[in-house]
Amino acid sequence: MSDAASPTLELADLKTHFFTRDGVVRSVDGVDLQVGAGEVLGLVGESGSGKSVTGFSILGLIDPPGRIVGGQVLYRGEDLVQASSARLRALRGRNIAMVFQDPMMTLNPVLRVDTQMIEAIRAHEAVDDATARRRAVAALTQVGIPSPEARLRSYPHQFSGGMRQRVAIAIALLNKPDLIIADEPTTALDVTIQGQILFEMRKLCQETGTALIWITHDLAVVAGLADRIAVMYAGRVVEHGATAEILERPRHPYTHGLIGSVPTRGHRGQALFQIPGMAPSPLRLPQGCAFQPRCTRAVAACAAMPDLQEIAPAHQARCWNPVP
């Protein structure tokens, strides 16, 4: 889906299922995506759509009862689904970094920040303490931590929630990875700091060629950040294309509903659009298109699952009756 000749990352028919007592949850059910050097891909969807599980699957972070049951995760042509645990450990943090929604999934509460950042560098490079410390200070400065040299000697509990998240983002930037997967990392940050970090991440991608997958439910965030947007619903990509194209002319009814529910100045005082119903239980997905029970454009053909089809140049939608 990317124009890049050799993408940094390619997902081919990726399937990650969770085998529970009540049945099989198909959290990721046939996802195809690409992201190239210096490119930002926004992965958008409601809670439970499978976007975070997609990110975890890339790095092999799926624990039982979940497992990848099909497809490929190709990092520079290497299939990470078949990679050993040792190989994945070598790639994590150095070549592919992840920023989690909860910073305490990254930070150790009993170690000072400088210890954690220096170890993150030395795990992949043989550098002296002074060099590692300078890189740590530079990373903290990059994400807007005041007095970075002094804050290096702090413990995670001495930071606010938003400051902890900035430290987690700084750790992801330390080794200048080829790919960063960011799972809603600015949710806990105020608007000013969020804007600063989005600017820095965009600048990083442009200057270093780092590929970025930004996972979010907030279309406003990806509007100014992403080159392309992939919209997920019930474990599948239902629409994909250039950011401007998706936001200005959404073709899948779900994407159209998401954009219509965002407050704008042009609709001041008017009731916002609301997608009817609730997202289906992943254990009891409807036959055919999973969005069919909530869709105002449903037709008889929706009883069968549509393919992701190109409906405009570089714009795909999984829909039998797309929005005109």
Describe this structure in words.
There is one protein chain. Strands 6-7-8-3-9-10-12-11 form an 8-stranded mixed beta sheet, sandwiched between helices. The chain is of the alpha/beta class and 324 residues long. It is globular. The protein has 2 domains: 1-85 and 179-187 and 207-264 and 272-324, 3-Layer(aba) Sandwich (Rossmann fold); 96-176, no CATH class. Helix 3 (113-122) crosses helix 4. The chain contains 10 helices and 12 strands. 29% of the residues lie in helices and 24% in strands. The protein starts with 8 loop residues before the first strand and ends in a 7-residue tail after the last strand. It has helices spanning 51-58, 85-91, 113-122, 129-142, 148-151, 161-173, 191-208, 219-223, 243-248, 253-260; strands at residues 9-20, 23-35, 40-44, 66-75, 78-79, 96-99, 179-183, 211-216, 228-233, 236-242, 309-312, 315-317. Strand 4 and strand 5 (78-79) form a beta hairpin. It is found in: Cell inner membrane. One of its GO terms (molecular function) is ATP hydrolysis activity. Belongs to the ABC transporter superfamily. This is ABC transporter ATP-binding protein. One of its GO terms (biological process) is transmembrane transport.
